[in-house]
Write a structure and sequence with these properties.
Largest sheet: 7 strands, mixed
CATH class: Alpha Beta
Number of domains: 1
Structural class: alpha/beta
CATH topology: Rossmann fold
Shape: globular
Low-confidence stretches: none
Mean pLDDT: 95
Number of strands: 7
Helix content: 25-40%
Order of helices and strands: HHEHEHEHHEHEHEHE
Bound molecules: S-adenosylmethionine
Strand content: 15-25%
Radius of gyration: 17 Å
């Protein structure tokens, strides 16, 4: 079945983006971390320790975990952890017996990101995947897009490289522009149509002929 293109009244970068990104970068996000997130974090810590790996890759909003398993293959030296709040999606994951350097956990990203935001982790997270986040295309919902979230700046600081993928060009443009406002250099490109799909949504979008975009942000290239 063909999936629909993102429809929005918003066809260019949101007019409030710059104000929002700068305001959020100067504030601290104070929402208390939920008990269940602390439990999920302990589970992650135990699995990471048991893996014997010294490097980390995280897959935020991993859905059914296809991308987590994919990343575990291309980062064999790392422990790869996918986080998604939807148990309905994470429970669908079928672990691949040949790659066991990964886990797919139910967790709230806003809590995991803050729990990971210590040098003990930020120094060893090589890659952060943010694949096909919900676009929230209504202009008034910009605060729900990750670059409109108060945790955008600390989130970009988690990994050496952060990669966003989306099928909504405006989302990619806003994400890239927001990172640039915080001093990062960014790579913005269209994905080739013949790539091997990394996620369930990517597979669906490719099959429907959507254009897909990626934004790559590298921490050491901050100017
Ligand atoms: C559009 S789906 C994409 C899933 C997957 N990355 C893919 O491409 O197939 C977005 C995912 O982000 C998850 N998500 C959104 N907000 C989240 C949050 N605050 N904490 C954890 N997961 C979240 C949703 O549960 C959903 O599975």
């Amino acid at each position: 079945m063909n999936s629909c293109l993102v429809e929005s009244r918003q066809t260019t970068i949101h007019q409030d983006l710059a104000t929002l990104v700068r305001k959020h970068a100067a504030t601290t996000y104070l929402r208390p971390i939920a008990e269940f997130s602390i439990a999920a974090f302990r589970c992650f810590q135990e699995m990471f320790a048991a893996s014997g790996k010294k490097r980390l890759v995280i897959d935020s909003g991993c859905g059914t975990g296809d991308s987590t398993a994919f990343l575990a293959k291309i980062f064999p030296e790392a422990f790869v952890c996918g986080f998604d709040r939807s148990l309905h999606r994470t429970a669908k994951h079928r672990y691949q017996s040949e790659t066991r350097n990964y886990a797919v956990l139910q967790a709230e990203l806003e809590d995991m990101w803050r729990l990971l935001a210590t040098p003990g982790y930020t120094d060893i997270i090589d890659f952060h995947a943010l694949y096909y986040p919900n676009p929230y295309p209504k202009p008034r919902h910009i605060l729900r897009r990750w670059h409109g979230h108060p945790l955008f700046a600390p989130m970009l600081n988690l990994a050496a490289t952060t990669e966003l993928r989306t099928n909504w060009r405006v989302y990619a443009e806003e994400f890239s522009e927001s990172a640039q406002m915080l001093g990062y250099k960014t790579v913005f490109e269209e994905l080739p149509y013949n790539i091997e799909p990394r996620t369930a949504f990517e597979r669906k979008y490719l099959a429907s002929g959507h254009l897909l975009y990626r934004v790559e942000i590298t921490k050491h290239e901050r100017h």
